[in-house]
């Protein structure tokens, strides 16, 4: 109803365009993420590309925080209802961050074993998005500047750890030979 009012159309018209809350929210999230979905960086290093992605994305994530928080809420609600058999439609799923991060991490695919790459990709997925706002702003009462600082620190620590583990594996493999 709020979206229809804001758009200046009737509620019925809005439902013809968006048959479910999930469909409407998917469109809103896609719009909110905008250029982040086609992120490209000139940096050669995976670590620098991730840093670039996080720094360039943060203002947009911050600006659209309310919509992205709503997406989390509806996603969680619909997943629970779907698992309980209370809705027939497929629940709203988020997942843009998987593709966005994969593009930023691309140079590290050659530097990391597949399992470490996947683990790093998944770990970075937990800090790239609105969830870090929820934890650090709502629980820790941090400012946006502090959230960004913590996000960048965590990303760097995760990448450095993955690279050290990969190097350790290479050294251990050479010793066995």
Description:
With 177 residues, the chain is mostly helical. It contains nine helices and no strands. The longest helix has 33 residues. It is elongated, with a radius of gyration of 19 Å.
What keywords describe this structure?
mainly alpha; 9 helices; elongated; single chain; 177 residues
DSSP summary: helix tally: 9
Between the first and last Cα atoms, what is the distance in angstroms? 67 Å
Q: List segments where confidence is low: pLDDT < 50 over at least 5 consecutive residues.
A: none
Strand content: under 5%
| Mean pLDDT level | 88
Helix content: over 70%
Describe the main β-sheet briefly: none
By DSSP, the count of extended strands is 0
- What order do the helices and strands follow? HHHHHHHHH
Global Rg: 19 Å
Alpha-beta classification: mainly alpha
The coarse overall form would be: elongated
Nutshell version of this structure?
With 177 residues, this protein is mostly helical.
Topology:
Blueprint: H1 2-7, H2 11-17, H3 21-33, H4 46-63, H5 65-83, H6 96-105, H7 114-127, H8 131-139, H9 144-176
């Amino acid at each position: 109803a709020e979206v229809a009012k804001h758009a200046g159309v009737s509620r019925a018209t809005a439902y013809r365009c968006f048959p479910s809350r999930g469909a409407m929210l998917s469109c809103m999230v896609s719009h909110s993420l905008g250029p982040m979905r086609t992120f490209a960086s000139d940096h050669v290093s995976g670590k620098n590309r991730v840093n670039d992605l996080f720094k360039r994305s943060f203002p947009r994530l911050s600006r659209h925080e309310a919509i992205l928080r709503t997406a989390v809420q509806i996603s969680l609600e619909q997943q629970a209802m779907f698992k309980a058999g209370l809705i027939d439609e497929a629940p709203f799923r988020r997942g843009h961050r998987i593709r966005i991060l994969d593009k930023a991490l691309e140079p590290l695919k050659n530097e990391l074993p597949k399992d470490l790459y996947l683990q790093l990709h998944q770990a970075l997925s937990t800090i790239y998005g609105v969830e870090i706002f929820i934890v650090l702003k709502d629980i820790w009462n941090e400012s946006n500047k502090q959230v960004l600082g913590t996000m960048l620190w965590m990303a760097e620590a995760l990448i450095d750890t993955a690279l050290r583990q990969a190097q350790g594996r290479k050294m251990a493999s050479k010793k066995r030979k």
